[in-house]
């Protein structure tokens, strides 16, 4: 059941902004976020009043057939961000800074963030904690909203030894120290990916910015999913995702119906063309 909080959030027809993220968080209203990589999907997700759309670098693995996110380029992200920004009128558009575009220096990070904001992003997301703090500070100082990303950070999959839970018991204090450092550096929110629920809960109790969880348990202030996992676009899904609709099966069904109609010569029908 959709619970309305009439006094918070943007006025009808107005965009959802970072201030509304904090407003929802303070009011205890869970924040919703889905990925999108193109205008038509962004339009549909936006019309469902999802608060934030993440132009994730999962673009590479979901849409471009890559085996990891490290091959995604800034040009890829610019094209996807511009498309999503064109399709979304309400949601806050957050663009991922791809691998290799911010690690070298704060100046490199600011240059990348500026390119993504020019493409239409209202905020940028980058992976890492204290090791990228100068970058986060520099981007915030440039007047750009920053979302952090801790826990399993896919761009460092090789370094982390594979796709596995991060921040378990002994490692929890380090992860929380990273989260506090990002908060102090000016991040408005932090994604926690594949983090034990107990660690997320401990972080929630210490932070005054919202954690957006993916595989991080029920205590995060909001949840994010990759839209293709959420909508059942393929047979496989990560264990932390839930399938909320069978869009993949429906698309296949539509393609089969189209194929049959063409083969049986029932399409195009008279209403689909002009004789003269
Ligand atoms: O790229 C992405 O989709 C992400 C989410 C998994 C948080 O970073």
TrEMBL record:
Primary localization: cytoplasm
Molecular functions per Gene Ontology: 3-methyl-2-oxobutanoate hydroxymethyltransferase activity; magnesium ion binding; methyltransferase activity
Residue sites binding 3-methyl-2-oxobutanoate per the record: 57-58, 96, 125
Cofactor section: Mg(2+)
EC number annotated for this UniProt entry: 2.1.2.11
Keywords (A to Z) from UniProt: Cytoplasm, Magnesium, Metal-binding, Methyltransferase, Pantothenate biosynthesis, Transferase
Pfam family for this entry, one: Pantoate_transf
Enzymatic reactions: (6R)-5,10-methylene-5,6,7,8-tetrahydrofolate + 3-methyl-2-oxobutanoate + H2O = 2-dehydropantoate + (6S)-5,6,7,8-tetrahydrofolate
Cellular localisation: Cytoplasm
Cofactor annotation remark: Binds 1 Mg(2+) ion per subunit.
GO biological process: methylation; pantothenate biosynthetic process
UniProt xrefs under InterPro entries: Pantoate_hydroxy_MeTrfase, Pyrv/PenolPyrv_kinase-like_dom, Pyrv_kinase-like_dom_sf
Transmembrane intervals: none
One term under GO cellular component: cytoplasm
Binding site for Mg(2+): 57, 96, 127
Active site: 193 (proton acceptor)
Pathway field: Cofactor biosynthesis; (R)-pantothenate biosynthesis; (R)-pantoate from 3-methyl-2-oxobutanoate: step 1/2
Gene3D superfamilies: Phosphoenolpyruvate-binding domains
Protein purpose: Catalyzes the reversible reaction in which hydroxymethyl group from 5,10-methylenetetrahydrofolate is transferred onto alpha-ketoisovalerate to form ketopantoate.
Family: Belongs to the PanB family.
Cross-referenced NCBIfam families: panB, PRK00311.1
Self-association and partners: Homodecamer; pentamer of dimers.
Protein name: 3-methyl-2-oxobutanoate hydroxymethyltransferase
Organism listed in the record: Mobiluncus curtisii (strain ATCC 43063 / DSM 2711 / V125)
Phylogenetic placement of the source organism: Bacteria, Bacillati, Actinomycetota, Actinomycetes, Actinomycetales
């Amino acid at each position: 059941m959709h619970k309305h909080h009439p006094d918070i959030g943007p006025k009808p027809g107005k965009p959802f902004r970072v201030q509304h993220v904090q407003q929802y968080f303070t009011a205890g209203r869970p924040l919703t976020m889905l990925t999108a990589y193109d205008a038509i999907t962004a339009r549909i997700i936006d019309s469902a009043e999802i608060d934030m759309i993440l132009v994730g670098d999962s673009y590479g693995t979901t849409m471009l057939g890559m085996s990891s996110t490290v091959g995604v380029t800034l040009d890829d992200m610019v094209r996807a961000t511009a498309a999503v920004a064109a399709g979304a009128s309400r949601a806050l558009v957050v663009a991922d800074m791809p691998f290799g575009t911010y690690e070298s220096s704060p100046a490199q990070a600011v240059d990348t963030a500026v390119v993504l904001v020019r493409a239409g992003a209202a905020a940028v997301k980058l992976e890492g904690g204290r090791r990228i703090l100068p970058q986060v500070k520099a981007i915030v100082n440039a007047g750009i909203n920053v979302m952090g990303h801790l826990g399993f950070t896919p761009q460092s999959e090789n370094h982390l030894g594979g796709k596995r839970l991060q921040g378990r018991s002994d490692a929890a204090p380090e992860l929380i120290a990273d989260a506090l450092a990002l908060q102090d550096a000016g991040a408005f929110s932090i994604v926690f990916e594949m983090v034990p629920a107990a660690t997320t809960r401990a972080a929630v109790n210490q932070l005054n910015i919202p954690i957006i969880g993916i595989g991080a348990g029920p205590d995060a202030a909001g949840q994010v999913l990759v839209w293709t996992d959420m909508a059942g676009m393929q047979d496989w899904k990560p264990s932390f995702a839930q399938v909320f609709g069978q869009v993949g099966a429906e698309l296949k069904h539509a393609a089969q119906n189209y194929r049959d109609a063409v083969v049986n010569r029932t399409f195009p029908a008279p209403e689909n063309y002009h004789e003269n």
